[in-house]
């Protein structure tokens, strides 16, 4: 386990972080796919009209973009359509095995990917995070990000080293906190594990159903007992940002992009990794088994890995691109956001989401439902 953890952390050593868009330059083998269409399903807020225009200008490919808000939403769509309806999708890396188990996505033809454009550590680390199943790769990594503490700097002062997931559950914050149901339980788990209050190592929860239930019974009891701090649960970025804009929240466990977007609006918001480690994830592009425009899908993958497209994407979505060279376009405000969010040893202390198999996702949903309805 230790070697896997350090290989995952190595993603960030050479990683390109959020960057501003630069003039797009058409180049490379993807330019040969100079016509046709692409049906793309990706996270809401990930793809801008400017990106679609730049992609079409470079390749001649017209793209239809279907946004979704959660991993469960796109997985459900793919199951209903039996792997059809889209040419490329954008699932979280740790959920890729769910698609493989349900025979919804096809192996990546690695000979058609311009791997030299992607950060080497992201390619390697993605192998153990879910991209490779039974020796075959099913996803090309395009971005990574975290979920940690977002807070109103006019109302709260948090410092790295003492800030904790436990801060979300203090009685004096009643009605002022926003969290996502299932990941809030993970934050509580890491806090309780640090204090020696879990019956089993928390990572065992992802490997064995009995260990999962033993740990989550303790986690859920703590969550329900402290639920009065929650003003609003969120399930997508719009809801999380709305909690701060209009619903009086001053502290939340949210994505980094949520905080970056609020800060860009001029809100008094900061983002900080807690002492237990920011919850970290990677995402990428996969090809459904029913993809009808495969050449165009590979063209889009290779375009996304250019520094120009990576910078354009990162600037719009407020996530971190895996495209080499995109960091050259990083503006000072984005550098400051990154350095403030991950001071000291925060990068070494990231907590990477393990692979979540179907049985775990089902049980996780049961505990989340009990938490939300309590």
Secondary structure layout:
Elements: H1 2-9, E1 37-43, H2 49-59, E2 62-68, H3 71-80, E3 88-89, H4 96-101, E4 105-106, H5 120-131, E5 132-133, E6 136-137, E7 140-152, E8 177-179, H6 181-194, H7 209-225, E9 230-233, H8 237-245, E10 251-255, H9 256-264, E11 269-272, E12 279-285, E13 287-288, H10 294-304, H11 307-317, E14 320-321, H12 332-341, E15 351-352, H13 358-373
Parallel strand pairs: 1-2, 1-3, 8-9, 8-10, 12-15
Antiparallel strand pairs: 4-13, 5-6, 7-10, 7-11, 7-12, 7-14
Task: Give an overview in words.
- With 374 residues, the chain is of the alpha/beta class.
- It is 39% helix and 17% strand.
- It contains 13 helices and 15 strands.
- The chain has helices at residues 2-9, 49-59, 71-80, 96-101, 120-131, 181-194, 209-225, 237-245, 256-264, 294-304, 307-317, 332-341, 358-373, and strands spanning 37-43, 62-68, 88-89, 105-106, 132-133, 136-137, 140-152, 177-179, 230-233, 251-255, 269-272, 279-285, 287-288, 320-321, 351-352.
- Strands 7, 8, 9, 10, 11, 12, 14 and 15 form an eight-stranded mixed sheet that branches. A three-stranded parallel sheet has the order 2-1-3. The chain has a two-stranded antiparallel sheet with strand order 4-13.
- Helix 2 (49-59) links the parallel strand 1 (37-43) and strand 2 (62-68).
- The radius of gyration is 20 Å and the shape is globular.
Short key terms for the protein model shown above:
15 strands; 13 helices; 374 residues; alpha/beta; disordered N terminus; 39% helix
